[in-house]
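ARCHIVE RECORD
Type: protein–small molecule complex
Small molecule: 1-O-phosphono-alpha-D-glucopyranose
Source of inputs: curated submission
Record status: active
Notes field left blank by submitter.
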Amino acid sequence: MIKQAIIPLAGLGTRMLPLTSVLPKELLPINGKPNLEYILEECLEAGIKEFIFIISKKKLSIKKYFFNDNFYKKIIKKKKDKGLIQEYKKIKKYKKMIKFVYQNKPKGTGDAVLKCKKFIKGKYFLMLLPDDLIIRKNCSKEMIRLHKKTSGSIIATKKVERKTVSRWGILSIRNKKKRHFRIKDVVEKPSIKKAPSNYAIIGRYILPTKIFSEIKKLKPGQGEEIHITDAIKSLIKKEYQFYGNIFTGKYLDCGTLSGYINSGIQISKGK
Ligand code: G1P
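STRUCTURE (tokenized, with ligand):
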């Protein structure tokens, strides 16, 4: 059973400056609700019971968002607003489920995951990158289902335009079924020439705890960062089974300003 989700939140958000100079991108509202809450809702619905947030000193406002009881209590005392009480209840529920770890230097997703090692209890855990929203269908739920069926690790994937492959982690595939396939190899941000397919990694992973020891062995890769993709690559070489789950929901890229604006439009259109 997968009960824990890791959410890396220490990124600098430079693609969204100047907004992110004062507000973490994960708290920017999309149709009235922070990006991060969409991710949490997806997890809750998929049966996740504990979140591990990787933040940095520069992103303490994420902690404050969930740990601001006195603020709420004072206002609610004065003003018995039903809507506000509802919001506070929701925040309190999340608060009980969140643990924090710190990554003060942006050394990549692999480094971020390694920082969570001491908290992970099961054999597998879920990781979600909050830049990637998937709406209309619960991607995490689909992945947990495939994990149960295959007993392997799972990565969310979708076909992208070939000319954009260098923006993504790309999967090399075998035995493609209708909505999933075995992953033969992964490569982080390849050139068009070197890309083994146009199936891109989208930010949802079910990973085995064995990944921690693989990350420890890695040297910095692309952009001097420790990439989770490289640790996955080593596990696949060692015959660990990884599957690509071609998710059925709609993907929204919230990591850029234009993507963020579009996300608001798409979500406001409703389900
Ligand atoms: C990260 C991963 C990449 C993946 C992408 C999905 O890249 O390293 O493999 O395809 O997320 O959004 P980033 O967006 O941090 O550059």
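CURATOR ANNOTATION: The first strand starts at residue 4 and ends at 8.
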